[in-house]
Amino acid sequence: MFSRIVALSRSMPAKVYRELRRTHSTASSAAPAALWGLGRLNHVAIVTPNLEQARDMYRDVLGAKVSDITPLQEHGVYTVFVELPNSKIEVTCGLPSID
User: What's the pLDDT tens digit per position in 34-59?
Assistant: First the structure.
């Protein structure tokens, strides 16, 4: 577990990281309450080189409800949303660059 804590340390606030290290032991220990103050997960974004293949896999193989492919010019990507019972997966692929 400690190696996972070290890997996560780059993305978490220093105060939380110090508290997690302070409370961690080799025996089973509870994580600090600050880590469990997270709310509901809205969505997770996954970048793929082939949006059509990813969309087909989620829809046809896994049976998920998948939105149409939509260009999001302001973000520079095409995107589809895979709907799950408690969250969404946003699958994206970059828009072609115009020189």
Answer: 666 666 777 889 999 999 999 999 99
Distance CA 41, CA 17 (A): 21
Indicate the residue type of 31: A
Q: Quick check: 66 and 80 in contact, CB under 8 A?
A: yes
Count of C-beta atoms within a 10 Å radius of residue 3: 7
Q: Which amino acid is at 73?
A: Q
Nearby residues of 79 by Cβ (< 8 Å), 6 or more positions away: 51, 69, 70, 71, 72, 90, 91, 92, 93
CA distance linking residue 47 with residue 60, whole number of Å: 19
Dist. CA 34–CA 66, nearest whole Å: 34
Coil, strand or helix: which one is 44? strand
